[in-house]
Fold this sequence. Notes:
Shape: elongated
Helix content: 55-70%
Oligomer: single chain
Protein name: Glyoxalase
Number of strands: 0
Distance between the termini: 55 Å
Amino acid sequence: MEERCSNLLRARPEIKTTQIHIGMSDDERFQNQTLRPILKMQNGLFLAMFKNYIAKYKNTYYELSLEKRLAYIDNAVQRNMKFRNSLKGVIIGQFTLEEYETYIANSSALNKRMMGMVIKRLKDQMQLFEKAPLAY
Length: 136
């Protein structure tokens, strides 16, 4: 089991912009030390999952204005429990045992942080969801 933990930690990208300081809350520290590297590592999978979500719901996303597309992302992550749980599974599956124990001690607050971060990532990369223009 120790090998799994060390392999997971080695596979994560290093994020240099995130500073850890003494007055930081435990949740914020967990976010910066654990969640940010995992979300960065799993970014391509999140994008593929959302593209699949769009297709599954008949591509209605493409008919929406920019403002409604932003709301669509919020609704997909916050209200569609199957999709939300899939996203959480992609993240939680990358936790070490120690991180998982930290997570279950405060899962409600950490779930809010995780989903907020996923929503921000999806919104920041919306241009990647655009359909390719038709070639003439």
